[in-house]
Specification:
Blueprint lengths: L2 H5 L5 H22 L4 E3 L26 E5 L13 E4 L4 E8 L4 E4 L3 E2 L2 E4 L3 E4 L2 E2 L6 E5 L5 E4 L3 E2 L4 E5 L2 E4 L11 E5 L4 E4 L10 E3 L4 E4 L11 E4 L10 E3 L13 E3 L1 E4 L2 E5 L2 E4 L8 E2 L2 E4 L4 E4 L4 E4 L5 E3 L2 E3 L4 E11 L2 E2 L4 E10 L3 E3 L1 E4 L4 E4 L8 E4 L1 E3 L5 E6 L5 E4 L3 E2 L4 E6 L8 E7 L17 E3 L7 E8 L5 E6 L18 E5 L4 E4 L8 E5 L5 E3 L4 E4 L5 E10 L4 E11 L31 H12 L13
Parallel strand pairs: 1-2, 2-4, 3-5, 4-6, 4-7, 5-8, 6-9, 7-10, 8-11, 9-12, 10-13, 11-14, 13-15, 14-16, 15-17, 16-18, 17-19, 18-20, 19-22, 20-23, 21-24, 23-26, 24-27, 25-28, 27-31, 28-31, 31-33, 32-34, 33-35, 33-36, 34-37, 35-38, 36-39, 37-40, 38-41, 39-42, 40-43, 47-53
Antiparallel strand pairs: 29-30, 43-46, 44-45, 45-46, 48-51, 49-52, 50-51, 52-53
Helix pairs in contact: 2-3
């Protein structure tokens, strides 16, 4: 029986032979597609250092298949051929199962290698664009403690990037990483991740687990400005995560050596002499319960509209090493809540709200510009705090509260009030004759200045749900130098007809969703005011605050109502939640690797059997393939 009749009796001999040939090619391709992934081991014995040279690979196996594992062994370091310790991918884009670097190699490629696992045990450089396989992650391990793996190419794609091992992994080069996903640093001592690019290294959120470390050693910012950095561990143990910016030399916003979005976790930040800035957070009120450690030249700066909480103790002893934050805490916008111990760090504020509570100990407090100081009003925490001195100016405000506990700021140094505005909020009844100590001034030194329009003995009416008339004294206490409010039996005629705000003291909204809050008050107010409104909100003449919030965060909004007798005011604790997920870098997702006309690359990691099967079927059907489905030369 002839081949023609075996294939199809009705086909002419020429077409039957063509069909037989195509069927043979298709069968070969399908067999190739079904072949398991293999290991391609570099020998370096070829006439050059190119991957297309068969002599450079053991058994002359060139890594042409997707799903291959590439191995660069230590023995090949001394091969002595022209390749030496340099290896160049001149094949094209590859989808690999893993890359294992055992020898001291420099691996160069202008083509993208899509790969989920990279392991190294020698000092080596991988100068190649890397991509995270679709639906997978990328794990990079330098396993040897005294060795360094340098990655100079960009990393793209979408997914988790994990850095591990006891050795050093470093991001160097000049191209910014664009991958969309969390970076988890899981190194063990003495290993760490070194960020030393002349462009951004961490485009999304960063987690540093217990015992791991990240060192920033660059002249440009390495972490994206809205990335949440979560540092884990226990500060006075070896199992502490560390972010070390003591070698950072950038100047973000002209002042910060490194800017991140927000700080969370229980680990440690080593500042050295540098400044760390927190700019914008996709989460509401991120809290850092760890420690800041730095010299007197260091600083931590909070700017942007969100609330950053610092709740850890910064001065502690770890063995024979004393850790402390001797630098300055700076507030330039939004809100900063300090609930822990940083008694060696002075705080300067030019805008935004500084809240101190929960018996927090801080250095000198200096308020200026449009900033305001809130003593207490953090739910569930005591309304008391301690500082080394207090300086206010006429443009600033001090908020004190009486309810579950009275606000008291204990000051061990000088107190200068500078004609600042005092706003008192009482949310429970205060018995006549009760003294509320709002500033406990140590020693015998007198208070300098007074609050605005409140001379010694002046009467004021508090805001809140239980408005109370008080007199103020700057000569209270045993040493006649404390600031004390004394509740009256009833307000005098000077304040009895003032409006009293009776609308809610708490408000909330969501970014991108319409917001509405109506100011209401007693005694027929004729006008209303609202200060410190979140971005996107405004107030009309009837006292309606409305709009669409644009930024997440917490703000103590001050609302007021006025009639012919005077003005009443109160704070409204306003929280604007993010419209997105609870944690995220907020970056637009960069495109992952895709298959395009002549690229020859396909997304994901595998053996490429799907594309070859389609090619085989097309050949059998006599279809024409143009553009794609062939590898770059």
């Amino acid at each position: 029986m002839s081949l023609t009749s075996t294939i199809h009796p009705s086909l002419p001999p020429l077409r039957s032979k063509r069909f037989a040939f195509l069927a043979f090619i298709a069968t070969c391709l399908l067999t190739l597609a079904a072949a398991p992934a293999s290991a391609a081991t570099w020998s370096g014995l070829g006439t050059d250092n190119m991957w297309t040279t068969p002599g450079n690979w053991e058994a002359q196996t060139i890594p042409l298949l997707s799903g291959d594992t590439l191995i660069f062994p230590a023995a090949a370091e001394k091969a002595g051929g022209p390749a030496n310790n340099t290896s160049v991918n001149n094949i094209g884009d590859l989808n690999l199962l893993s890359i294992s670097i055992v020898g001291a190699f420099t691996i160069n490629s202008t083509y993208t290698m899509t790969c989920p696992t990279i392991n190294a045990s020698a000092t080596a450089t991988l100068a190649a664009p890397l991509a995270i396989p679709v639906g997978q992650s990328l794990t990079i391990n330098q396993t040897t403690g005294i060795k360094t793996l340098s990655l100079t190419g960009l990393i793209s794609g979408s997914g988790l990037v994990t850095i591990g091992g006891a050795g050093i992994t470093e991001f160097t080069g000049s191209t910014a990483n664009t991958y969309d996903g969390l970076t988890s640093v899981e190194t063990s001592a003495p290993g760490y991740l070194r960020l030393a690019r002349s462009a951004e290294s961490i485009p999304g959120n960063l987690t540093i687990i217990s015992g791991a470390k990240v060192i920033i050693d660059a002249t440009t910012s390495q972490i994206h400005y809205d990335s949440v950095v979560n540092i884990l561990g226990t500060v006075n143990t070896a199992a502490v995560g560390i972010l070390d910016i003591s070698l950072a030399r950038g100047l973000d916003s002209g002042v910060d050596n490194e800017t991140i979005g927000a700080l969370e976790g229980t680990g440690r930040v080593d500042l050295g002499t540098r400044r760390l800035g927190c700019y914008v957070s996709p989460v509401v009120a991120p809290e850092f319960l760890g420690s800041l450690n730095g010299t007197a030249a260091s600083s931590f700066r909070k700017h942007g509209s969100f609330t950053q909480r610092l709740s850890g103790t910064n001065d502690f002893l770890d063995g024979a090493t004393v850790y402390d934050f001797l630098g300055t805490t700076v507030l330039n916008g939004g809100a900063l809540t300090v609930l822990g111990g940083q008694s060696s760090s002075n705080i300067t504020a030019t805008a935004g709200t500084l809240l101190v509570a929960k018996l927090a100990h801080v250095g000198a407090i200096a308020m200026s510009g449009s900033s305001n100081l809130s003593v207490g009003n953090d739910p569930g925490n005591q309304n008391q705090a301690f500082s080394k001195s207090l300086s206010l100016t006429s443009s600033t405000r001090m908020d004190v509260f009486s309810g579950a506990g009275n606000s008291t700021l204990t000051v061990t140094g000088t107190v200068s009030l500078g004609s600042a505005t005092l706003l008192v909020t009482t949310d429970s009844a205060v018995t006549a004759g009760t003294d509320i100590l709002i500033i406990d001034n140590d020693g015998t030194d007198a208070v300098s200045g007074t609050f605005a329009s409140l001379p010694q003995g002046a009467e004021l009416l508090s805001s809140g749900t239980a408005p109370t008339a008080f007199t103020i004294s700057y000569r209270g206490g045993a040493n006649d130098n404390d600031v004390v409010l004394t509740a009256l039996t009833a307000p005098t005629s000077a304040t009895a007809s003032n409006p009293v705000i009776n609308s809610a003291g708490i408000a909330s909204g969501v970014v991108g969703t319409a917001f509405s809050y109506q100011i209401t008050a007693t005694n027929t107010p004729t006008s209303f005011t609202a200060s410190y409104l979140p971005a996107g909100l405004s107030m009309n003449a009837s006292g309606l605050i409305s709009g669409t919030p644009t930024t997440a965060g917490f703000t103590n909004v001050v609302v007021g109502a006025t009639n012919a007798s005077g003005t009443g005011s109160r704070t409204v604790a306003t929280t604007i939640d993010s419209s997105g997920p609870g944690v995220g870098g907020g970056n637009p997702a960069p495109p992952g690797p895709t298959s395009t006309g002549n690229s020859g690359s396909s997304s994901g990691c595998g053996n490429g059997s799907g594309g070859l099967a389609v090619l085989a079927l097309a050949l059998m059907l006599g279809l024409s393939i143009s553009g794609g489905w062939h590898r770059r030369p």
